Amino acid sequence: MTLVAGIDSSTQSCKVVVRDVGTGDVVRTGRASHPDGSEVDPRHWWDALQIAIAGAGGLDDVAAVAIAGQQHGMVALDADGAVIRPALLWNDTRSADAAAALTAEVGAAAFAERAGLVPVASFTATKLRWLADHEPENAARVAAVALPHDWLTWRLRGFGPDGERGPVLEELVTDRSDASGTAYFDPSRDAYDRELLATALRRPAEDVVLPRVLGPRELVDGPGFVVAPGAGDNAGAALGLGARPGDIGISIGTSGTVFAVTDVAVRDPSGTVAGFADASGAFLPIVTTLNAARVLDVTARLLGVDHAELARLALAAEPGAGGLVMQPWFEGERTPNLPDATATLFGMTLGSTTRENLARAAIEGVLCGLAEGLDAIRSHGVAAERVLLVGGAAQSAAVQAVAAQVLDAPVVVPEPGEYVALGAAVQAAWALTGARPDWPLRTSAALPLDARPAIRAQYAARLP
């Protein structure tokens, strides 16, 4: 039996799954937590990876490994390979002004043409500009810029200041999917745009080492196993779901994402849709919201219930929640680009303000925001033949019911699983064998259309 390992180093935790190449069966798993916050010392990811690997029984019998991870995080390294400062993560919005400045300097249309996206606070380039403006001494020390999955892959292969192979910056590697979220990589040309990098850093950047972009099935050496390129988390999920053109993935996790696999790059000068690459050699247009499952967490806490009771309350309310509308921007928002926004509850009357309606409004608010993203992707000619609904909240009966009412496409709910890590294992097997695995996707629900346009209409009426 040949084994491969897929790793998901996400915002909240590190997951390892070991799969049988022949069947796709999960043989064993491991997990470890990450610290909270939007600024994290990368050593915590490395420590968590070691714990998760040990929990999965180690990698001694594994033939290939791939790491997928949270996108956009800025890991700035000095000439000795040391981390200069804690990494700014995708959900850190302090670089909102930097994003606006970069867009003004380069132009939204030019950014979309050159990098497939328009900067928002999430992207790596905006964090580099923030570093240049607020910590110029640290910016001057930057000798290499990596993303979380790049840095972990480098460390796993034995590189780093305390690694047995030394801090060889030129051994940093990445893939198209993660590089395409930096705002200085063009996924159509598969090439970095160093002029955009220099604009972000406010200094010449020809000497700054950027990770070498590996092809989807290219391998590099590791300690006793080979290492595949890895991927951004959404591209990893697409692989794990077996997504093909016509499939729309919607994930309700820490963030909310809507993504599609396409053969043609999408360029959206409005910035709503980011034209990322995927992990198979195609493209992954994506819309991301900052507020997703945690909206349901905070609503459940407010009501003093668990998630099962939150779902029961929501299902007891009528669609539209009696006119109660939650605009769930608790942490600012990325789509629409309103980093300083706060959440608002509209339509409160003596009749509408009930526990049931509040539970329903929270779920409708999250899914209406994702439905807006689905519409934005479809506006670029992307087909939506079915929606694959994943993430921790996807198993909720109330979330499933509302999804069928607002997403305007048949909804399939895969069985619960660590799809980012599972997708990384798909990539590892693909790179190892040269053939993409045809492992089955097990589903727990298939929901026919149950369109309730009034839900979307009352939500849209509250948009700025």
Q: How are the SSEs ordered, and which strands pair?
A:
Layout: E1 3-9, E2 13-20, E3 26-33, E4 39-40, H1 43-55, E5 62-69, E6 75-77, E7 87-88, H2 96-106, H3 108-115, H4 124-134, H5 136-141, E8 144-146, H6 148-156, E9 173-175, H7 176-179, E10 185-186, E11 191-192, H8 194-201, E12 212-214, E13 220-221, E14 226-227, E15 231-232, H9 233-241, E16 247-252, E17 256-260, E18 274-277, E19 283-289, H10 293-303, H11 307-316, E20 325-327, E21 344-346, H12 355-378, E22 386-390, H13 397-406, E23 411-414, H14 419-433, E24 443-447, H15 453-460
Parallel strand pairs: 1-5, 5-14, 5-15, 9-12, 16-22, 22-23
Antiparallel strand pairs: 1-2, 2-3, 4-7, 6-8, 10-11, 13-14, 16-17, 17-19, 18-19, 20-21, 23-24
Helix pairs in contact: 2-4, 4-8, 9-14, 10-12, 11-12, 11-13, 12-13, 12-15
Would you summarize the structure shown here?
The chain is an alpha/beta fold and 464 residues long. 34% of the residues lie in helices and 21% in strands.
Describe the structure.
The structure is a single chain. The protein is α/β, with parallel strands linked by helices and 464 residues long. It is 34% helix and 21% strand. The protein contains 15 helices and 24 strands. It has helices at 43-55, 96-106, 108-115, 124-134, 136-141, 148-156, 176-179, 194-201, 233-241, 293-303, 307-316, 355-378, 397-406, 419-433, 453-460, and strands spanning 3-9, 13-20, 26-33, 39-40, 62-69, 75-77, 87-88, 144-146, 173-175, 185-186, 191-192, 212-214, 220-221, 226-227, 231-232, 247-252, 256-260, 274-277, 283-289, 325-327, 344-346, 386-390, 411-414, 443-447. The strands form seven sheets. Strands 1, 2, 3, 5, 13, 14 and 15 form a seven-stranded mixed sheet that branches. A seven-stranded mixed sheet has the order 18-19-17-16-22-23-24, sandwiched between helices. A two-stranded antiparallel sheet has the order 4-7. Helix 9 (233-241) packs across helix 14 and helix 12 crosses helix 15 (453-460).
